[in-house]
Amino acid sequence: MSERRSTVELSSLEQTPLSGLARSLGLDVAKWLPYASKPLPVTLRLTPERHDLGWTRSMLKSLGGKKIPWMKCSESWQMPFLSGNYPDERSKKILTLLHATGRITRQEAVSMLPPVILEAKDGDLVMDTCASPGSKATQLCEAIPNGLVIANEPVSGRLNLLVTNRARLGIHNMLITQHDGRHISRIPSPGLDGVIVDAPCSGTGTSRKNNGLWKLWTPKVGRSMFKLQADIANRAAQLLRPGGKMVYSTCSLDPIENEAVVCEILRKAPWLELIKIDTDRLFPNLICQRGINDWGILDDNGNPLEWDGSLPKLPGLSYEMLNPSQRGEDSPNLEYTIRVNQHENDTGGFFVALFKHVEERTPEKVARSLILKKDKLHEPRELVRKKKNRHSPVKAPIEVVKAICEKWGVEESSFSWWLRGKRISIGPKLILEKIYDPIVYNKKGDYWPSFDFHPLKVIHVGQPTFAENRGIWRTRQESLELIRPHISNSLVEVKIEIIEQLLSGNSPLVEEFPVEVNRGSFILKCDDYLLPVWIAARVSLMIDDNEQEILRMKLGIELERVK
Fold it and tell me: Which of 86, 217, 316, 421 is the most buried (most CB within 10 A)?
């Protein structure tokens, strides 16, 4: 799609139901439409705590990138070109390499709002109920490096995207689960400190990257999402501890997916209250609108229907989707929520609401899902654990952990250690303390015993960091940044010429290597450069082409020609 559409094209788009939705919200369609129909600018966030963060900044500056002025809580950048419209091959190549090696994450600017609004504290236990592809979940992990994020994704295909992004960034404080968002299993007492519900939606705010919306979207699409959105949010509310906070968000403009869902959440979860989002403090200079209390019902052409006091006969429309005045109810403080429109900040469209679990409304001092049914109290019985398979994560055998720590000089007590297949993952101790070690009760008072993840269906724990090869536990490339400060053994000091030689494609015979080394897995070190190698008959690099290309750029070795 071209950056600018013709007058004829814009005129045709103005007649679509999507433009009708914008018009019903009071937007100036003449100003909104040119932005809503052109590609987004490329935006991204930097991965914090990388040893070469300064170099990454310099590369972004060389491409004309600038920090997003309204995003002060997370280092985010906007590039001077549109998505899919790179000015040259160099720009495309550099951004591709930075993303592939985990130094940046390409992410829409408005998608960065929910983790910031949640304001989780370091050490908190938080959840992203609909986590894939993982941009918000990984952003949460980076914001609370000593906390723990439960990233849940029900769909197996999308789960793989989440795993890939976790691995790409080398994130260890993430627990990946697979549950239907409406039926997430219990977690140990007292519950979650925070939760993000970035709900599935019709995506009316994504018109800048999803051109099909202009032809396919009608108001009944938004109505079809309402129950799913409300049910997922209601389950999240049940898992939230007293005093905890929940963010509900969509990339939709439709009030039936936004304000109407907020009203439904408050009806089903009266222990929650709506909190005003402090945009002036969190996002200075961001232009956003407050949520609305009065919205109409649109027909399938996007035209508003006259309200005559009775529910219009439209597919999927229910009484709960009406605005408070139409239902004869007092409106909650919907102006506490925020809307971001495409044309006001040159972004996508977005909606966010913030809730808090009021402590006084739950005297039991635990998440609502953990309150026992008083009429079914009996002598607690131990529940049967589900059978595990070779893909189930379990605690790593102590002898394996000790062997790894001895080889690499890592302090055992710095992490929790997990085995999945032939890989060892590391995670924060918080996984043990808040998820694995405690018992979990069901409503009847029966319990799943300690030292297990049940009833949560945990797919991945922490970050895969070591892999077995011929009885030797070698490091994994994507985890090198994570364990860089912890490795003290199996480091081989070399001169920069050796690193340049290896990056030039030469794999010297071990007899020709200028440093005496044994066979096996090692890391070559020179200043800030760390290169994992496997030493057998030859010294072979154990990093992929993308990371090698980055290192060549740093050392001034000519970039490989882009194919």
Answer: 217
